[in-house]
């Protein structure tokens, strides 16, 4: 049994800066906000949902199986199950792909797919407390930074200091300069600022009411990370993050993605149930693929992932009218474009990340795939694009890609 999977009502919260406007809300609370809004805006009876697939890159014991936890926190029916998955940066795409496979195979009719991250609230932890420490210090690891160092087995690959190092490796492999990286970052901020000025995010956005000790809640309704003043001059003043370790380093805080807080979700629905449920699809799920790569060059992951997807589903670059390549780092994106064979003058650059991406809008790991999907879905309809490609690199050495078809 194979049925087409429809994407309905893709939504996202605004993206908060690290320790910024959303930091007082944990991941479970953000997940509840987006799930409640999804049920209200779609108009679907929540009891018709068969499962909730939620991604999170930094899960913890405060909201285990966060898809189910957030669903219950939103006050939704206890009969609906839910779970959590993690493919690091690619988790949000994986949530949608997993939901689509459930629908396509007849195992479910309606699945909520989404993701959430509160990087502001990722905890510090220790591995020493369970057995006790007789003498000496007890080390607390920062799960954010530790997760990047431990994203691959050290015994096999050695110590990779973090994702920044992997981006620097690609910059050298593909002869990418600091000016090229900064110029791409400026483009990202300019695209995001223009999209906000034109109201392009209005339909997909779910404002977050942030409770206060006294008085009314504060309404958080705007992305915090993009910079309207970004220029070659302002970005050029920033020192490379790994400059002391690597004199040739080019990655700065200005041409790298941010740490963020956000949530995103959509409905993934069987084609033959749409009319009965009164739902109008925005997109059809067109297939997905993931591929592994050298962890020390993890940023190149979209190249083999897209190649595998195109081979399996018969797509060609000529079919694709919009490309969303998450911006983990500017040199990483530029390396992928070279890996795809795109020249500096390639016209396809005009359909790449047209409203900004990770550098400007942010990279809230588990929510990034859903944030990108919500933006891409609405932009595909504005432009009349038939096929859109979403792809991203993944810490530890992977890439993931998915194609979506506009529902006319």
UniProtKB/TrEMBL annotation:
SUPFAM superfamilies (alphabetical): Thiolase-like
Entry's EC annotation: 2.3.1.9
Keyword Acyltransferase carried by entry: yes
NCBIfam families: AcCoA-C-Actrans, PRK06205.1
Keyword tags: Acyltransferase, Transferase
GO MF terms held by the record: acetyl-CoA C-acetyltransferase activity
Family: Belongs to the thiolase-like superfamily. Thiolase family.
Protein name: Acetyl-CoA C-acetyltransferase
Top-rank EC class of the record's enzyme: transferase
Thiolase N-terminal domain sequence ranges: 7-272
InterPro entries hit by this protein: Thiolase, Thiolase-like, Thiolase_C, Thiolase_N
Residue ranges of domain Thiolase C-terminal in the record: 284-406
């Amino acid at each position: 049994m194979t049925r087409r999977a429809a994407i309905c009502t893709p939504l996202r919260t605004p993206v908060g800066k690290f320790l910024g406007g959303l930091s007082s809300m944990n991941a479970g609370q953000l997940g509840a906000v987006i799930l409640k809004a999804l049920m209200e805006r779609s108009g679907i009876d929540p009891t018709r949902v068969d499962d909730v697939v939620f991604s999170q890159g930094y899960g913890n014991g405060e909201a285990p199986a966060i898809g189910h936890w957030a669903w219950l926190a939103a006050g939704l029916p206890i009969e609906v199950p839910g779970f959590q998955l993690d493919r690091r940066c690619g988790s949000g795409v994986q949530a949608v792909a997993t939901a689509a496979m459930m629908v396509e195979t007849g195992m479910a009719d309606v699945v909520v797919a989404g993701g959430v991250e509160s990087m502001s609230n990722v905890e510090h932890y220790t591995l020493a407390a369970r057995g006790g420490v007789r003498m000496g210090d007890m080390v607390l690891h920062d799960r954010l930074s530790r997760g990047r160092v431990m994203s691959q087995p050290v015994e096999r690959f050695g110590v990779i200091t973090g994702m920044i190092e992997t981006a620097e490796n690609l910059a050298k492999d593909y002869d990418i300069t600091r000016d090229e990286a900064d110029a791409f970052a400026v483009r990202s901020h300019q695209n995001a600022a223009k999209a906000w000025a034109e109201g392009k995010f209005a339909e997909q956005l779910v404002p977050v009411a942030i409770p206060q000790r006294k008085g009314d809640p504060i309404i958080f309704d705007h992305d915090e990370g993009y910079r309207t003043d970004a220029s070659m001059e302002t970005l050029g003043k920033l020192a490379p993050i790994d400059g002391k370790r690597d004199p040739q380093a080019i990655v700065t805080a200005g041409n790298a993605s941010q740490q963020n807080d956000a949530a995103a979700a959509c409905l993934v629905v069987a084609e033959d149930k749409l009319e009965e449920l009164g739902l109008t699809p925005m997109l059809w799920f067109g297939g997905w693929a993931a591929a592994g790569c050298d962890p020390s060059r993890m940023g190149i992951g979209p190249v083999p992932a897209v190649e595998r997807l195109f081979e399996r589903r018969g797509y060609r670059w000529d079919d694709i009218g919009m490309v969303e390549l998450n911006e983990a780092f500017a040199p990483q994106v530029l390396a992928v474009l070279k890996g795809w064979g795109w020249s500096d003058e390639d016209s396809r650059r005009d359909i790449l990340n047209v409203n900004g991406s990770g550098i400007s809008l942010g990279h809230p790991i588990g929510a990034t795939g859903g944030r990108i999907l919500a933006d891409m879905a609405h932009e595909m309809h504005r432009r009349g694009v038939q096929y859109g490609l979403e792809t991203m690199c993944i810490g530890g050495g992977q890439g993931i890609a998915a194609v979506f078809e506009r529902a006319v």
